[in-house]
Amino acid sequence: MGKSSRRAPRPSGTALADADVPVVGQREPCPCGSGKKYKACHGRARQVQQPAFVVRPFEGLPSEPDWVALREVVPAATATVRLTDELRERFGVDEVVVATVLPLAWPALRRADGRVLIGLQTGGGSGDPSRDVGAALELALSAEPGNPVSLAQVAEGGRRLQELVDVSAPFEVSVHDGFDFWVEGADELDRDVRESLEHANAAVIPTERLTGVDAAYWCRIGDRTHLRWVLPQPEDTLLDAIARLHAAGESGLGEGTRYIGAFRAHGLLVPVWDLPQDAVAADVEAPAVAFAERLQQALAVDAPLTYDERRARAGVVSRQLTLR
């Protein structure tokens, strides 16, 4: 008979403290030494403690679609947000810079000059990116100048961004060709940050934000050119409207363009169009404005979908991909 693969329980005298118990497979013996499977011991406790997943973490912030875009779509961009009266009085900082990515994937950074930057494309464990980024923001405000915030520091989450920033102030996005905004000058870079900057700049996808409509981003990925547009309307209503336009042959953005589908990101739908390979952002400005007008008209229709529109909707839905 083969040996059992079940591990012997740890003696009670060597049991680990709760905070020191590592995460293992659900069916593995719990490392705490209890003799139970992980899923029935500390794994269960951690599942109970896991905060609920927030479908629309950036809802309530100014320009929610642009927050989603900077989190999921745009490689290199910044925007400035004004802090609440409480934080301005407490820390003497009026504004912070929201960035897509920071050096070495830091969640936040307080520069030597006292400026605070927070990164949106950073992991977190709360199930609510707004809470994770909010925790990084508060930690950065409390940090000594010249120090980053580590991912381990924000593991527990904190207050949400909606509680920390002035939601009445505008959120104006600046798209960059690279990540030189990380530092004021090359002399400030240590070797690790310099290497991170060079690697990140080499991987940047050319991206531009359209000026005539909100949260629409032209990009070129290899030999393909796309427009990705984060829209704020409820998904079912938006899909009905796009289906009406698709059935009428009006879902494109001009000659040589094609609506190819959509993905979900943080509770919002992000339609995507194929553009001619040599198209630049300026080429799609006027067509995007015209599409926005057609979309508003389609959104205002409350009649049931026709047979052709239902078929178009089924096709639209079948092309979706869910991203969180």
Outline of the structure:
It is built from 8 helices and 12 strands. It is α+β, with helices and mostly antiparallel strands and about 325 residues long.
Walkthrough of the structure:
The protein is built from eight helices and twelve strands. It has helices at residues 42-49, 64-72, 85-91, 129-142, 191-202, 235-247, 281-299, 307-318; strands spanning 77-82, 95-99, 108-110, 116-119, 147-149, 173-175, 207-209, 216-221, 224-229, 258-265, 268-275, 320-323. The strands form two sheets. A six-stranded mixed beta sheet has the order 5-3-4-2-1-6, covered by helices on one side. It has a six-stranded mixed beta sheet with strand order 7-8-9-11-10-12. β7 and β8 form a beta hairpin. It is globular, with a radius of gyration of 24 Å. Mean pLDDT is 87; it is low at 1-14.
